[in-house]
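Field reference: sequence -> structure
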Amino acid sequence: MDAKSLLSVSSQNTPIPSLLNPKNSLSLSLVQSRKWVSFRTKNLLAPQTVRYSRRLECINSVQKVKHAVDEEDTKAGIKKKNLAVFVSGGGSNFRSIHDACVGGSIHGDVVVLVTNKLGCGGAEYARDKGIPVILFPKSKDEANGLSPTDLVAALRKFEVDFILLAGYLKLIPVELTRAFPRSMLNIHPSLLPAFGGKGYYGMKVHNAVIASGARYSGPTIHFVDEHYDTGRILAQRVVPVLWNDTAQDLAARVLQEEHRLYVEVVAALCEERVIWREDGVPIIQTKENANDYS
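Structure field:
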């Protein structure tokens, strides 16, 4: 069941059927409010059979979702990918990615947004665009947040292909990295491995770059592992550091390149043009020539 179907059902105050996980008999029910979408779990005491009007069937208590693949959802034989974006702030990279999906530059759809701050600009933008918002992680102040296990289950229900971190400031739990191997990207505002790791985010990165005397900086897109900014590098874009730059000047210049680079990389990811070398280094196949890489 896709995210739009879930939202349309919720807006009509129609009960949403529980989503059954046959492996551990865990039921996930989606709850929609004006602020967020949450998944509540409960144990099932007896098999349930649910029929849902949009091609959703439950057979022997196991739901099998059949999706009709329309011609517009395929590109050169490649199915459109489902994307989950994680944000903690304004979400400018998220907006660029979403715009590119809507405009057709990216062969994918943002089907859900995950945030640790329900009031951030990225979450507000998602709600305005009808994109479901999930709160993660659970905390003392945010009882509606999901646990790592429930987050993985929720992303599975949205049939997420790739996870994109776009200014998400929490460490990704090991449950998520193991559930989505080689399927999670992050963007960092420096040329990693320089000026990366715990504590290096936002303006702290740009202040450190200027203080070091480095002549170049720029965004890095890398795959996510269990630590801050240590995953395999996929793409970088070089930006000059000018002699009279402030941290704000440099941040603005790097952010412009972030928007361009992230869209290009996500487009390649959705078109299945990311190739892994034998030594475990990811490279991007160019659109023009399958034998050329960047």
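Note: The chain has two domains: 3-65, 78-284.
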